[in-house]
Amino acid sequence: MEQPDVSAMDHAAKDDLIRFLLAEIAELKSRITAFEIRLAKDNHNSSKTPSSDGLHKSAPKSLRQAGQHPKGEQKGHKGSAPERVAKPDHVVNHPLPVTCDACGSPLDDAHVSEARQVFDIPPQQVDITEHRVLEAHCTCGKVHRSDFPEGVTATTQYGPRVQATVVYLTQHHMLPILRTTQILRDTCGETLSPGTVVRMIRTAAGNLTPTIAHIADAVQSARVAHLDETGMRVAGRLHWLHTAATLNMTWVGMHTRRGQEAFDAFGILPKFQGTAIHDGWAPYRKYGSLHGLCNAHHLRELTMVHELYGQRWAKSMFDLLIAANREVADGPITDDRVVQIGADYTAILAKGDSVHPIKRRKDGSAQRSQSTPANLLRRLRKHREDVLRFLSDPEGPFSNNIAEQAMRMPKVKQSISGCFRTFDGAAAFCTIRSYLEILRKQGVDLLHALVQSFQGKTIQPTMG
Fold first, then answer.
1. For the whole model, what pTM was predicted?
2. Residue 366, beta-bridge partner list
3. Rounded average pLDDT over 324-349
């Protein structure tokens, strides 16, 4: 770029050049700041996961307050060491010498002075049961033949416990199919093909589909439901894993779309009339009678605005939300206290506006593109009732952690096993995962429940 000859300019031209250069500098500084903030985002000041922090990742910073649920063994914890049993399976007496090695006298009065018990797993092997049908010919000519038990349909096949174990390892503990076959080969001496494992997973999903339909109906009728979605790779393409969860129930489903089209296809949200708890994504506002926003997201954003932009109002809002949540956790708060928290909330927003005003056009209207602090301020103001829902609604939670927890293990599945190769496999995973997560919440033995399902006696979770 050719440099202008400043010496040949008059004062007006120089003033114009100075104004132009100052505007350019301001624009460049703004862009540099935006890039610096983008690079500075990590798991503690944004919704990014710890795994996305790269090689210079820092330990996740907990939002838990000092003294709340201290680390380590909790007071009154009994420990996890095995307890002695009265009748062990095997007893081994370790004998003494026949005579004393000092004087040679016989040792006839030996007795047990101490006992120690070792808990171990016996060698595993597949137990094979052969079913035989009998046939007899009556003198009248009629042939009598007994029947195979229900479910015994092939010359050789795997029983419910083998099938349940395969599903338990792949769908609950997130092991890849090949690794699951290796574990069964090494522990039980039985080699399964990947195709056999896939068929077992599909069978389990088919057995559980009616139960999951009832779960979807129960979530639809819930007083409060937590909603979330996350991207998953299916057959090499981006799909969306959706969840609708309550304290006792979890439903997850897979769809090619993220928003309303998926919600309507699943059929849960169109008739939902309770309080929808979510992260503020706009399509959720089409459903439910009331809404509550996840304040865990707000706390991370407030941390970013305070640390990266240096704005004190964000720290004040952070402290206010944390203190209010602690008060609610300790018991119901008075109406006067709710009013006071609301007044403090308003005052903090006013401080934020004073240090970070909304960018406006020449005609006075707000620009569409605003800074991160301005966008956060606008959301906290526009959806004030939803942010503070946990104060007025006894069942209203402070965060959307229940939904985010439902998403955690599917993401682990993707990290360990890679993407789902087919949509049917992803849908089967969602069905089985919904069932197992509900039983886990309700304290049911998951492996036993899967065995029962393969035996045609699916355990029904408590709805509600």
1. 0.80
2. 360
3. 93
Amino acid at 425: G
Q: Which of 375, 276, 380, 371 is nearest to 321 (CA)?
A: 380
Handedness of CA 87, 91, 97, 98 (dihedral sign): positive
How far is it, in rounded angstroms, from Cα 30 to Cα 35?
9
Smallest CA-to-CA distance from 321 within 306, 342, 304 is with 342
Give tens-digit pLDDT for 69-82: 566 666 766 667 88
Q: What is the SS3 assignment for 313? A: helix
* Alpha-carbon distances, residue 270 vs 255, 354, 395 (angstroms): 16, 41, 22
Q: pLDDT tens across 266-300, in order?
A: 999 999 999 999 999 999 999 988 999 999 999 99
User: What pLDDT, on the 0 to 100 scale, is given for residue 35?
Assistant: 67
DSSP code for 323: H
Give the amino acid at 83.
E
Cα 102 off chain centre by: 67
